Amino acid sequence: MTRAYHPWQFHAQDNKQSIVLPDGCRDILVIQKQNAPDVLHLTAWDHQPRQIDIQAGTRMRGYRLRPGTEIPAELLRELRDASDIPGLLAHLPQNTEWPEIIADLAKADSDLPNIARQCGVGLRTFQRQFKRRGLPAPEFWRLLGRARRAALDLRSPTPLAHIAQDHGYADQAHFSRDMRRWFGFSPRALRNRPDLLLQMSEPALSTWTAEQSSIK
To answer: CA–CA separation, 200 vs 149, rounded Å?
Structure first.
């Protein structure tokens, strides 16, 4: 059974700046700074890259939620400190319908009207269901899934024009605009950032599996 979350951890040895890329996930974070109480934080979905400054000595422990995993508000309200997190995760709803729908939207051959029909509703109703659940719109998942798959192909020496064509972009310029929109870099520049490509290979939209675990 596919896990609803993946644990990860991070320790900053020095002051650093880090770029967080859209991955279709939310994370429950435990942030530990020197001489300060732990901070608990539930991240939002990123629609564009963001830069964060991290102080030396900061430790983070995270629980990355599978795209589409829902956390009932009453469970969040009961979360008081880091020791409560394993219990919260153990009581997450076992319904995998929405994570699976989102995984389908992120696939290469996804078609919104067809996926809506498979769910037994029309496209407009399908879109409203996402909104009612507080989820980004269906098109967000489809476009981000394509962008992440295309970006991961930058790890190979495949010509950029071929990658653009393989992932359904109109041309290389369209591909370049999409990479800048989602990740802040042109395909050529992103290809020269193995740290960001490694980040995109971690469990997230289009790369989620039952076996992976993430340690940053």
So the answer is: 9
